[in-house]
Each structure stands twice: as C-alpha cells, then as structure tokens.
UniProtKB/TrEMBL annotation:
One GO term (biological process): chromatin remodeling
Lineage: Eukaryota, Metazoa, Ecdysozoa, Arthropoda, Hexapoda
GO function term, MF aspect, one: zinc ion binding
Alphabetical list of SUPFAM superfamilies matching this protein: HIT/MYND zinc finger-like
Keywords in alphabetical order: Metal-binding, Zinc, Zinc-finger
Keyword Membrane included in the entry's annotation: no
Highest taxon of the lineage: Eukaryota
Annotated stretches, region: Disordered: 1-48
InterPro entries noted in UniProt: Vps71/ZNHIT1, Znf_HIT
Listed name of the protein: Zinc finger HIT domain-containing protein 1
Signal peptide range in chain numbering: none
C-alpha cells in the first residue's frame, strides 16, 4: 500500500493541497482581468512627439542639391493618417451623428456559431486540451502548466 502512495504524481499530491474556485469566482476573476486589460489597452504612441536632431544629416536634401534643383517635399498619406488619427470611440460617435438609426457598429449582430467554443492556452495561446483545477485557466502542455503555476495561478487576486 505504501508503494502505491509513493507512486502518485506530484501534481495529484499538490492538487489536494490547493483550493478550488467555484464558477462564479472564476467568472469574476476573468471579468476583472479583462477590465484591467481594457483599461491599459489603448495608449497614444510614446514616440509621436519625438523631433529629429537638427544636426543629423539629411541625405535626401544633399542628393537633390547635387542635381541643382530642390523639390518641395510632398506630404505622404501616412502623415495625414497620423495627424488626423481618431480613436474608436470618436469614429463611433461620428457614425452615430451621420446615421439617424444609430451606429452601425452598435447595431451589428451575428448568429450564434454552429461550432463549439475553441479553447486556447492562457500562457502561449496555442489550442489547449487541459484545465487548471484550482483556477480553471486553460493550458496546453506541462511546460505551460509550470509557467501558469509559477506566475499566474491564484497569484493575482482582486
């Protein structure tokens, strides 16, 4: 009998020690994680206000100067995209103002899928077949399970 107890895997022994979350707690944790991701999802480009050093050589101008004529620089479409960039909220508000029925974005609907939900690994993003017993997160292999247990599983609770 003692040899059978010694042959149990370490994962099964550890699972008995860990607490298991109920479905409501798992949903609440997933919602809080999504809210935190959404809150820091959109940021302006930190490099948008960088100005090139005036001492840096301007290679295009030196080539034009050698040919004898200077061309006026035309602004590319990329310049206008960056200058007049709008956020998603601004585009939705603009769409609401143009359409009397409301925004097409808000009225868009799709039929439910005929296929079952696909599950992806919480660590690497590959398709996953396994679920963490304590927290319900998905993982695809032993390596991702180790990473999940070391860094994610029940570590960051709100």
């Amino acid at each position: 009998m003692t040899t059978m107890a010694n042959r149990l895997s370490g994962r099964i022994k550890d699972a008995n020690k860990q607490r298991v979350l109920d479905e409501a707690t798992r949903q609440r944790r997933a919602r809080k994680a999504l809210e935190s991701l959404e809150s820091d999802n959109f940021h302006d480009d930190p490099h948008a206000d960088l100005v090139m050093n005036k001492k840096a050589p301007k290679f295009q101008e030196t080539l034009d100067a050698k040919s004898g004529s200077r061309k006026k620089k035309s602004k590319s479409a990329e310049y206008y995209k960056l200058k007049f960039r709008k956020s998603l909220a601004q585009m939705i508000e603009e769409d609401k103002a143009l359409n009397s029925q409301g925004s097409a974005y808000e009225n868009a609907e799709a039929k439910p899928s005929k296929f079952p939900n696909r599950h992806f690994c919480a660590v690497c993003g590959f398709p996953s077949n396994y679920t963490c017993v304590p927290c319900g997160a998905r993982y695809c292999c032993v390596r991702c399970l180790g990473t999940h247990q070391d860094t994610r599983c029940l570590k960051w609770t709100a």
